[in-house]
Specification:
Helix content: 40-55%
Shape: globular
Mean pLDDT: 96
Strand order of the largest sheet: 2-1-9-8-7
Strand content: 15-25%
Radius of gyration: 18 Å
Structural class: alpha+beta
Number of helices: 11
């Protein structure tokens, strides 16, 4: 593997060029070799925490406490805000828990996540991460509650206010001490457990991996691996100035690498292609280092 200092320097230079502060951990799932660039710093997970909820759901299913084919109702009123999935739909919906999990992971549907949290419970999510040896991975509130804190902290004109750096700086949802959080190292440890069927029995591990592979967003982690024979499965997370993704990169020679990248942009602009792309760039630097002779 390339020297750790050189690799870390390249990763930090890529973050700086993209105008973000970044934290990364990459882990060879089989050998345990790793790349560390702020891997033990506390980070805001945003929708990355939906992976923790998904694992908790499948642990409960494996234990017989939840039937993944159970049907749930989703009326139009009271849905958690969001631009995708159930959150954007207008009519009543009835679907299974596992189909809600698909929407939660594939398009980061906040309403689907809320339905699953209502069924599983926040305490179960935290019990799952604690049981997997992830003491710094904690869900403080639901996704609905997290978005409510942003509206409250930003004030009545919150949409416009979120372009003001002073307003964004005071959002509790962007403070790891006050919101859902983890570290890059703990997230790669979780991914490793999922890929090695240590988080859940094999049937449920395969179901989790399938859903991570169905995520529709190619502009972050996957952008660093534009090859037909390299498989990327992941989960993004996004809040004002925050762009994250955790996932696994699999090569045709059998190499498997868990990568967690968390970023915070200096700009409050909602569209920052360079900030999205650097997640893939930094991940590629780390994986190339892990694969180097």
């Amino acid at each position: 593997m390339k020297t750790a200092t050189t690799t870390r320097r390249r990763i930090r230079a890529a973050f700086a060029e993209a105008g973000v502060t970044g934290w990364l951990h990459a882990l060879d799932i089989d050998s345990g070799a790793e790349v560390d660039a702020g891997a033990d710093d506390a980070v805001v997970t945003a929708s990355v925490h939906k992976l923790c909820l998904l694992v908790a759901l499948h642990q409960q299913a494996a234990a017989g406490r939840v039937d993944l084919t159970e049907q749930i109702e989703c009326p139009p009123d009271g849905r958690t805000a969001g631009p995708t999935g159930l959150a954007a739909m207008l009519d009543p919906v009835r679907m299974s828990l596992r189909d809600a999990a698909y929407l939660m992971m594939a398009v980061s549907d906040n309403t689907a996540a809320g339905l699953l949290l209502n069924r599983v419970g926040l305490e179960a999510v935290n019990s799952t991460t604690a049981g997997l040896g992830l003491p710094r991975t904690l869900a403080v509130h639901t996704f609905h509650e997290m978005l409510a804190t942003i509206r409250e902290d930003a004030g009545p004109d919150h949409a416009r206010a979120l372009t003001d750096p002073q307003v964004v700086a005071r959002l509790s949802a962007l403070d790891p001490a006050r919101t859902n959080r983890s570290t890059p190292r703990e997230m790669t440890r979780l991914l490793r457990a999922v890929w090695r069927d240590e988080a859940c029995p094999a049937e449920h591990g395969a179901a989790i991996r399938r859903l991570l592979g169905l995520q529709v967003w190619p502009h972050r982690l996957a952008s660093g691996f534009p090859f037909d024979d390299v498989y990327v499965a992941g989960k993004t997370g996004t809040l004002p100035t925050v762009r994250n993704e955790v996932g696994v990169v699999e090569y045709p020679d059998g190499g498997r690498y868990a990568v967690a990248v968390f970023t915070r942009a200096a700009s409050t602009a909602a569209t920052l292609p360079a900030a999205d792309a650097v997640i893939g760039t930094a991940a590629r630097i780390a994986v190339d280092a892990l694969r180097a002779p």
